[in-house]
Write a structure and sequence with these properties.
about 400 residues; alpha/beta; Aspartate Aminotransferase, domain 1; Aspartate Aminotransferase, domain 2; 2 domains; seven-stranded mixed β-sheet; three-stranded antiparallel β-sheet; 13 helices; pyridoxal phosphate
Length: about 400
């Protein structure tokens, strides 16, 4: 087994970036025999059959050569049509849409394309813990904004204050419905945030990967309000249970998309042919597929929220995605990592410590209800037993 030669170093920037707390915790508890994991945002549904068949046909038809760097035009047209219907913004498929390797690559390409050394990127938390390490790698400085006191929503007043304190702000990142809280932003709130972002001449990178999974509310994209400064990110991972296909997309004004396209090409060259074929099918003949998932997820959400509240674990009722963010009862303290590890070891239930999602997550835990009904019922029963035993 080789060892690195003496005197060879590596990037100081990369060394300082910490691995995902979500993955670290998941890897740790995955070693526990018999554990039920509600840790990862992984749909337990299967990809729709007609979408799978489209991928199979792509392979059988020897669709195995380099695709256009920005993605196949037919798929970019389908994405453009989909966004026109859903968020009412017309993106030119030739110049304003890029197909990426999941939303993760889209986030990387966007931040690398807009950032100069010293630029500040404002990130409301608690939120998915990818954004600030990527900002670091892109030579930007991140500003984590704790939204816990405002119901886990970034208010325009709070944003104004943060911008005043951070005069080098270049962009705001929004993710909604939000991972880990499931909180959705109202149209009123989005319009107010858009005014602040326009006033201060900022970009908004809006990650709306969960926008098709909302419950009882209508999703309103900030790209509808300020398309001239919005970089819109989404994909088919959550909407069509296609996480393994790694198919995302990014849309925005042509001028910035030309730069994002460059970064995308340098990162990955292009996305996989069969995944693009599957996504094309999903976004043309599978627009109703998420309705079935929503029905199942909403039933699970209602069960998990009620069960946790009955146990004394206060939750913010999620209006989207497939997570519940629950507050640890005060008598158990605020050490969410200790709480989650103890629960995993004693009752064999894996839930993610809230501190993995940044400021405002401390003292909370995230449960993913993208798991079977059987697993959810068993896990919630075990959590109830744990709380009762621990409380005695």
């Amino acid at each position: 087994m080789p060892h690195l030669a003496d005197g060879l170093g590596y990037s100081d920037k990369v060394e300082k970036v910490k691995p995902s707390g979500i993955r670290i915790f998941d890897n740790q508890v995955s070693k526990i025999p018999g554990i039920i994991k509600l840790t990862l945002g992984e749909p337990d549904m299967n990809t729709p059959e007609h979408v799978k068949q489209a991928a199979i046909r792509s392979i059988q038809n020897n669709d195995s050569h380099y695709a256009p760097q920005k993605g196949k035009l037919a798929l970019r047209k389908a994405i453009s049509n989909f966004l026109d219907k859903t968020i009412h913004v017309k993106y030119d498929p030739e110049t304003e849409v890029v197909v990426t390797v999941g939303a993760t690559e889209a986030i990387n390409a966007a931040l690398f394309a807009i950032s100069n050394p010293g630029d500040q990127v404002i990130i409301p938390t608690p939120v998915f813990s990818l954004y600030w390490p990527v900002a670091t790698l892109a030579d930007a400085n991140f500003v984590l904004v704790n939204t816990a006191k405002d119901g886990f929503v970034l208010t325009p007043e709070h944003l104004e204050k943060v911008i005043e304190e951070n005069p080098k702000a270049k962009a705001v990142i929004l993710n909604y419905p939000t991972n880990p809280t499931g909180v959705e932003y109202s149209e009123e709130n989005i319009k107010a945030l858009a005014k602040v972002i326009r006033k201060h001449n900022l970009y908004v990178i809006t990650d709306e990967i969960y926008s098709t999974l909302t419950y009882g509310v209508k999703h309103y994209s900030i790209a509808s309000e300020i398309p001239e400064r919005a970089i819109y990110i989404s994909g088919v991972s959550k909407s069509h249970a296609m996480t393994g296909y790694r198919l995302g997309y990014i849309a925005g004004p042509a001028e910035i998309m030309a730069q994002i396209g460059k970064v995308h090409g340098l990162m990955v060259t292009t996305t996989t042919d069969s995944s693009q074929a599957a996504a094309l099918e999903a976004l043309t003949n599978g627009l109703d597929d998420p309705k079935g998932y929503r029905k199942v997820y909403q039933k699970r959400r209602d069960f998990v929220v009620k069960a946790l509240n009955d146990m004394g674990m206060e939750t913010v009722k999620p209006q989207g995605a497939f997570y519940v963010f629950a507050k640890i009862p005060e008598k158990f303290g605020k050490d969410d990592m200790k709480f989650a590890l103890d629960l995993a070891n004693k009752e064999k239930v894996g839930i993610t410590p809230g501190s993995a999602f940044g400021p405002g997550g401390e003292g909370y835990v995230r449960l993913s209800y993208a798991s079977s009904d059987e697993n959810l019922h068993t896990a919630l029963s075990r959590i109830k037993d744990y709380l009762q035993k621990k409380g005695n």
